[in-house]
Amino acid sequence: ALDMFRDNNALVIRTPVAGGEVPDLDIAIDGDLLTIRGARHEILPSHDENWFYRECYWGAFSRSVILPLDVDASQIQASLTHGVLEIRLPIREHGRAITIRPTLIK
Q1: Is 67 in contact with 89 (CB distance < 8 Å)?
Q2: What backbone torsions phi and psi does residue 49 show, to the nearest 5 degrees?
Q3: What is the tens place of the pLDDT at every residue in 66-84?
Q4: Strand segments (E) across 9-106
Q5: Phi and psi (nearest 5°) for 81?
Q6: What is the helix (H) or strand (E) element at residue 5, kind and residue range?
Q7: Helix-then-strand count for the chain, H and E
């Protein structure tokens, strides 16, 4: 699960990582692709005969998402509070310019 929204001049991404710790998380940006990698560590012993339900996911995870706005990756900020990872990316003020070159049709 992931939430993404604009907050003034920042793109904000929030995602729950219950069971994850800061040293287990890695955030990377490559172009307009943001990737969050990490691991959730199981707290309770895993003796199968004692379980009635097992729905929580434990172990390594990875999530990638395309960023809808041009951001300044060098100013990324992240925090982990009560199991929720928040990533703030400043939105670049300038837009992307595309140069169109004319072609001759023969």
Answers
A1: yes
A2: -70, -15
A3: 999 999 989 999 999 998 9
A4: 10-16, 26-30, 33-40, 59-66, 77-81, 84-90
A5: -130, 120
A6: strand 3-7
A7: 0, 7
